[in-house]
Design goal:
CATH topology of the largest domain: Transferase(Phosphotransferase), domain 1
Organism: Helobdella robusta (Californian leech)
Distance between the termini: 55 Å
Number of helices: 10
Family: Belongs to the protein kinase superfamily.
CATH class of the largest domain: Mainly Alpha
Number of strands: 8
GO molecular function: ATP binding; magnesium ion binding; protein serine/threonine kinase activity
Structural class: alpha+beta
Order of helices and strands: HEEEHEEEHHEEHHHHHH
Strand order of the largest sheet: 1-2-3-5-4
Strand content: 15-25%
Largest sheet: 5 strands, antiparallel
Number of domains: 2
Keywords: ATP-binding, Developmental protein, Differentiation, Kinase, Magnesium, Metal-binding, Nucleotide-binding, Phosphoprotein, Serine/threonine-protein kinase, Spermatogenesis, Transferase, Ubl conjugation
Shape: globular
InterPro entries: Kinase-like_dom_sf (IPR011009), Prot_kinase_dom (IPR000719), Protein_kinase_ATP_BS (IPR017441), Ser/Thr_kinase_AS (IPR008271)
CATH superfamily of the largest domain: Transferase(Phosphotransferase) domain 1
């Protein structure tokens, strides 16, 4: 949809809830337009996603959107965008969220061609923290990609877009499999591309590996323009570019993640790999020195 589909009259209801909407459009999605606004109640700027019901697909409005809203209400974590309020009228749905002033991870990578290893490690650690949090709550994101990761002005990670998320995955002792294939080909694990039932938690981990590769190398690990070729590439050992130098520990982390489902680590196990563990120790040492000073 286009920003022209909305006009000042559509914001009248928001003023009743103490929101003053800015005219600037922050983003346009398939079924929504994102605006910034000032909230008198919260005394801060917020983001408001406006969804005209007439524009939304039936499946989106009746299945994916209600599920996303229900999940967002229960997710409270520094690395997940904060849900504040939903306002619904006969013709529109308004979702009020934390306003993240910054870039998407995709924009950040494109601006610099690739990110240095230290910056990538800081971002990746926060990503793992956020995903570990939702996995512990029995939720898998299922659409992790650079576009769905925001970086605020201080470099903090905010994960967004839980429209394809699956919940209640901790209802049994066994890892539950899914047959709903969603997300983007470039970030999809082999079992999804092959059309096999997959473990949503481990699908998220594969996507994290793709994201880490993109950060440090500035390109996709597997070319996604041809599905048949992509299917072949994701099941053979990954080759690392030699033109960009990264540490052996970082390379090992990527290789450890982008593995077949049966040996792919959980996100908690990824956090224990030497690249992240040793970087964490360096950070603690640095903090202690600053405290001593």
């Amino acid at each position: 949809m286009s920003a022209e589909d909305l006009n000042d009259k559509s914001f009248g209801v928001l003023s009743l809830y103490g929101y003053t909407v800015n005219n600037e459009v922050l983003g346009v999605g398939a079924y929504s337009v994102l605006h910034s606004a000032f909230s008198k109640t919260h005394e801060t700027e917020v983001a408001i996603k406006v969804i005209p019901k007439i524009r939304g697909a039936k499946e989106f409005l009746t299945q994916f959107l209600p599920k996303e809203l229900e999940l967002m209400k229960e997710l409270v974590h520094p690395n997940i965008v904060t849900f504040m309020q939903v306002i619904e009228t006969n013709v529109k749905i308004y979702i009020v969220m934390e306003l993240v002033k910054g870039l998407s991870l995709l924009q950040a990578v494109q601006a610099k061609k690739q990110l240095n290893e230290k910056t990538s490690e800081k971002i990746f650690r926060q990503l793992c923290n956020g995903i570990e949090y939702i996995h512990e709550k029995g939720i898998a994101h299922r659409d992790l990609k650079c576009e769905n990761i925001l970086l605020d002005a201080r470099g903090y990670v905010k994960i967004i877009d839980f429209g394809y998320a699956k919940s209640n995955l901790n209802s049994t002792d066994e890892l539950i499999r899914s047959t709903t294939f969603c997300g983007s080909y470039a970030y999809a694990c082999p079992e999804i591309l092959q059309g096999r039932p997959y473990i949503p938690f481990l699908a998220d981990v594969w996507s994290l590996g793709v994201i880490l590769y993109i950060m440090v190398f500035g390109s996709l690990p597997f070319e996604d323009t041809n599905l048949q070729r992509l299917l072949k590439l994701v099941v053979i050992p990954l080759l690392m570019p030699t033109s960009i130098k990264i540490s052996g520990r970082c390379q090992k982390t990527i290789r450890k993640i982008l593995t077949p489902e049966e040996i792919r680590p959980s996100v908690s196990a990824v956090k224990e790999l030497s690249w992240l563990r040793e970087s964490s120790n360096d950070l603690k040492t640095s903090t202690l020195k600053e405290t001593d000073a």
